[in-house]
Specification:
Helix content: 25-40%
Number of helices: 16
Radius of gyration: 23 Å
Largest sheet: 7 strands, mixed
Structural class: alpha+beta
Distance between the termini: 50 Å
Oligomer: single chain
Shape: globular
Number of strands: 19
Strand content: 15-25%
Length: 511
């Protein structure tokens, strides 16, 4: 694609420099004088950490999104990318991104936000010694230069189509260099966002307070509490009694109960998330395609999706319908449910009675997947048991490859297929975000070609090829493409859940 086409493709984004919808428009709200401006969110697990550089899970990012900010942001309604800490950007050539930053912003500790802070953050994200889980976001960036106090220049090795999507990712949020050098921002986060970290009592709660010196209008909420409530049924009871005002990722089996609650609203919409069963591709028998095919034929995803009360979509494509790179029909190359064929492959290849352990995080959706898959794989002749772990321990265990088969999910925060396939399945990201440890040079090449290109039509074709290759190779068995869902008190106003499942509390108030 010619450079002028690149620029015109993003012209609408530059025109949207007014930030995300509703930013700063507090005068239009009617805030109750009597209702306390505080909210408690019930989280089924504790955060793994509070540094965007050092974490890569949705539980942690729920908190970090309130404390830190990115250069760009996706509009939660349209998924259009707009400037946030950035003021504008330019592409003098297809390998150069010159970003003008907003002036007069400070981190919560008083450190100035400027080009040096951006360079510091991105250098840390790319530093192999720090081993950031989402270093892949900036892997194509060859150099980061401070041009003046408020201009930073990123140069890529090759054209990088998803650059703005990468810079809007929560793990590319800008951190205070002072705080990161002098303290542990994984325990004591310091950003530029609308809320300031107050305390973390591990296993119980995390508390944030309003940033009174925020660079935009201050948030309406004075206090935000993330309450750890491991059992969703308990969280629903607390929502009913008013002890908490907000829950998300609603469990399908409890949805009728939630929808029956008085004074509670429910949001549901198609999302970008994919949930899947992954094999450890460095261990036998999971290295054997025939074994993976047998498992794929033996799993009836529809039996799982049918239990979700509309909170999941049946589609065996790795790249889902709401993600760039999906082409209708890709799912047709997957291995359909065929129990007899699965049994035949198991028996012919000597796998009958093979002992398998399914590792599952202690979250309702993964436990439900594990129970269904255990039953189905037992039916085709395997000896299957389930092992469950607390969320942070699970992430550490899975990242190290200490499992046989496990259930994972990817929120697709950027809604770009290359930012699904590269971090999860490219061989460069083994020991980081490629939990299944999949390695296929031909697949790697296609994914790289999808990233190193600013022609969106060509990117779509490369992503489709890579998607089909991975579906056939079956390092994953897709369980479902999710919907985003939340339930909250009718006193909560302004809450909007993005298709990638993320939410900001900046525009939220209590009425």
């Amino acid at each position: 694609m010619k450079l002028n086409r690149v620029i015109s493709m993003f012209a609408i984004l530059i025109a949207s420099v007014v930030l995300i919808s509703g930013c700063g428009n507090k005068s239009s709200k009617e805030i109750s004088k009597e209702k306390k401006q505080e909210i408690t969110y019930a989280s089924t697990s504790d955060a793994a950490g509070l540094s965007p550089i050092d974490t890569n899970d949705s539980i942690s990012s729920n908190v970090t999104m309130q404390v830190y900010e990115t250069l760009f942001i996706q509009d939660p309604e349209t998924m259009e990318i707009k400037p946030l800490l950035a003021e504008s950007y330019d592409n003098p050539d297809e390998n150069t991104w010159t970003i003008k930053l907003r002036e007069g912003i400070k981190f919560h500790d008083g450190t100035p936000f400027n080009a040096e802070a951006v360079k510091y953050t991105f250098d840390q994200l790319k530093d192999p010694d720090r081993a950031a889980p989402r270093a892949s976001l900036l892997e194509p960036v060859d150099s980061i230069e401070v041009k003046d106090e408020y201009i930073v220049e990123l140069k890529t090795k090759k054209p990088y189509g998803p650059m703005l999507a990468a810079l809007s990712h929560t793990n590319a949020a800008i951190v205070s260099p002072t705080a990161d050098k002098e303290d542990d921002i994984n325990k004591d986060p310091v950003g530029t966002g609308p809320f300031v970290f107050e305390e973390w009592e591990e296993g119980d709660h995390i508390t944030l307070r309003r940033n009174e010196d925020y660079w935009r209008d201050s948030a309406d909420l004075e206090t935000v509490t993330f309450k750890i409530v491991p059992e969703m049924s308990t969280a629903i009871s607390m929502l009913e009694t008013g002890e908490v005002q907000f829950i998300d990722n609603l469990p399908s089996d409890l949805l009728p109960r939630i929808e029956s609650l008085n004074d509670v609203k429910v949001q549901k919409s198609e999302g970008t998330r994919v949930s899947f069963l992954g094999f450890n591709m460095e261990e036998e028998p999971f290295t054997d395609l025939k074994f993976r095919q047998a498992v794929a034929y033996g799993i009836d995803q529809e039996a799982y999706v049918n239990q979700l009360n509309g909170l999941g979509i049946m589609n065996e494509s790795l790249i889902g319908p709401k993600v760039f790179g999906y082409k209708e029909g890709a799912e047709d190359v997957a291995y359909p449910f065929d129990k007899e064929k699965a049994k035949q492959i198991i028996e012919e290849n000597g796998y009958k009675g093979k002992k398998i352990t399914l590792l599952a995080a202690n979250r309702d959706n993964y436990k439900k997947m594990a129970e269904i898959v255990q039953s189905q794989l037992t039916d085709i002749g395997l000896d299957v048991k389930i092992e469950t772990m607390e969320w942070a321990t699970f992430l550490d265990t899975a990242r190290k490859g200490n499992f046989e088969m496990t259930f994972l999910g990817w929120a697709n925060s950027t809604a770009d297929g290359s930012e699904l396939l590269y971090p999860n399945l490219h061989s460069d990201t083994i020991d980081a975000s490629n939990y299944t440890r999949y390695s296929n040079p031909e697949f790697d090449k296609l994914v790289e070609e999808s990233r190193n290109n600013v022609d969106q039509d060509e990117r779509l074709e490369k992503l489709n090829e890579a998607n089909i290759m991975a579906i056939k190779d079956a390092p994953w068995i897709v369980m479902e493409h999710g919907t985003v869902s939340a339930a909250y008190s009718k006193s909560v106003d302004g809450l909007l859940i993005s298709p990638n499942g993320q939410w900001s509390l900046y525009n939220v108030s209590r009425k």
